[in-house]
TrEMBL record:
Residues 12-60 form the HTH merR-type domain. It holds the Pfam family MerR_1. It comes from the Bacteria. This is HTH merR-type domain-containing protein. One of its GO terms (biological process) is regulation of DNA-templated transcription. GO terms for molecular function: DNA binding.
Amino acid sequence: MAIIRLENKEFYNITETALLLGIHHTTLRQWHREHKIKPARKNAAGHYIYNEADMQLIRRYAFGKLPAFSVNPAAWESK
């Protein structure tokens, strides 16, 4: 399933990312707190930002195709 782009931009905030992935933004925040997904970058204001590669990894985790980051961090680098 391809990522639908809101705009032609390099990074998306957490709300846009959650919308594009079809998950709730609080779920994405929870996965960060629980170290289940790869840590996101932060912009100058300290807000999480994601690029399309980040979203692909989150999508794979969300749909059970990738183990949680805290369980197998090497999987994030090899996929």
